[in-house]
Amino acid sequence: MEKLKKIVTRIENLTEWSGKIFAWIVIPLVAFTVYDVIMRYLFQAPTKWAYEMTWMQYGAHFMLGGAYTLKYKLHTRVDVIFAQFAPRTKAIFDVVAYLVFFFPIFYILISHSTIYAYYSWEILEESYISYWQPPVYPIKTVMVVAFILFALQGVAEFIRNLVFALKGETI
Amino acid sequence: MSPEYLAVVMFLGVLVLVMVGVPLYMALGGLGLYFGIAGGWSPQVYDQFINRIFGLMSNEVLPAVPLFVFMGVVLEKSGAADKLFGAFYLAMGGLRGGLAVATVVICTIFAACTGIVGASVTTMGLLALPAMLKKGYNIPLATGAICAGGTLGILIPPSVMMLLYGPMAGLSVAKMFMGAFFPGFVLSALYIGYIVIICIIKPELGPPMPKEERKGIPGAKIAADIALYMMPPLFLIFAVLGSIFMGIASPTEAAAVGGFGAIIVALAYGQFNFTALQESVISTLKVTCMVMFVALGAFMFSGVFMALGGAKLIGNFVISLPLGKWGILVVMMVVIYLLGMFIDWIGILFIVVPIFTPVAQKLGFDPLWFALLVCVNLQMSFLSPPFAYSIFYLKGVSPPEVTIGAIIRGVIPFLILQAVGVALVIIFPQIILYLPKKLMG
Known about the structure:
The complex is a heterodimer.
Chain A: H1 2-22, H2 26-42, H3 50-71, H4 87-122, H5 137-167
Helix pairs in contact in A: 1-3, 1-5, 2-3, 3-5, 4-5
Chain B: H1 3-20, H2 24-38, H3 44-57, H4 64-78, H5 80-92, H6 98-111, H7 118-134, H8 139-155, H9 160-169, H10 173-201, H11 219-245, H12 251-268, H13 274-307, H14 310-320, H15 324-342, H16 345-362, H17 367-381, H18 389-397, H19 404-427, H20 430-440
Helix pairs in contact in B: 1-2, 1-14, 2-13, 3-13, 4-12, 4-13, 5-6, 5-11, 6-7, 6-8, 6-10, 7-8, 7-18, 8-10, 8-17, 8-19, 9-16, 10-17, 10-19, 10-20, 11-12, 13-16, 14-16, 15-16, 15-17, 16-17, 17-19, 18-19
């Protein structure tokens, strides 16, 4: 029990920090885009990197924030019926949902995004959307990291629910 | 099992799972996974998931989602609404129902600076609700005005709903923003008209403020205050919507400028510091991820659903209904409305819109007009109990004497007005189409 508690606490600390750090990505997203707008419209000198920087920051921002959002139980769910359940029923419901949906989904997402990113590293893939041609392997690696963070927070949620469902105790 | 059969089970399955309370990203992603396997596409379908998710990450329009959310959140913290409400309070408090009208007016203005609903409803719930209660306003009228007014945030551009809708239906987001402009104002005008009329018929619902309270404040001072405090939001609206409408900037660029502008406004009001900025980035992350992970699940779902021929199958069924073009349109709208009572708008957007869009096209409806009709309709889902975000948001910031029942009673007349709004844009499609045609030819 103590061990489980420790695992949950560790994971949640990691999630909390990840969210507090990655949330700031929105600031460079604003700053770089505004800089490009100024250069483009006031000085007729658009940057060559703005377009790709924008999507890479946005992609990293929401993907890496998923775990934090899960920790605060903010991922959208319709609770018209769910809210009527007793606390223990809710926990059992979630345990089943994690086993049937969450873990299989994230097993597939993590394993296959790893292959995807690995291949990108192997050929040192570059993007050809713009003539800046930035490397793509970092953002593809971000995808793997994001899924792992999300899945870890899912493990913490699962343990909490499982303990509550079995013993009626809150970790 | 035949693919058609699988597709029907998949479609009904997601509705059932979502309604019993499985988080949307899990229900959508999970069904995508299992039906991808059942359809015989494993393991290639796993790589397709990753490809589609990477496509979501590298989308051209969607960076505007966090940016518009950020703009709205910062503006909410800036105190701009407080100041403006304070000025309107003095100007309109003396009229019957004046504070409720002021609430809708301010919500409409701020709707043109934000892309979501939560911020307006909670801000006005904290500002206008206590003020109206203190003046003896009827609770349902006060709460209805706040919920309905605040919900305009999702319809009046910029709108996160349209950022997601546009790419999915192959429509230009800028055009959708233009199309949504007048419908938003028509609804706002309907709300205001209703409040004014009901307060003439039943003055006790919105009693005017006693004259003593305004004594010693000259009219010129009030007018100057309103003009002054209108400037920041109007400046942002001009910068953001103006640049999109004139075709100067893409939604993403305009959203970034809006976020930057919101910071400047917040600094100008002197209420912005590091803590406020930190809170803003955190709320931005949460709201963005709420939206984007439903999209992520939906991307896993829709690839498989399309491959099974699900959209075509259900679409063909809808078209085969012996109701004629307009009858089918009404059926589609009613289905969206009914789903909106129970399901989150993003879910409906990703599950239903890909099915209905080709149907509308085959029936010969203008794609832009149809899309905005759906948006006006989806806006109702924020107000329709039992699952209605605006009602939850308002309840979350209300004093205990404001019961959820009172809020629901208050929302009903505005829901009827919304339905009137839907009917108006059906009868007069120009409300939607005028501005895009005028600006883009």
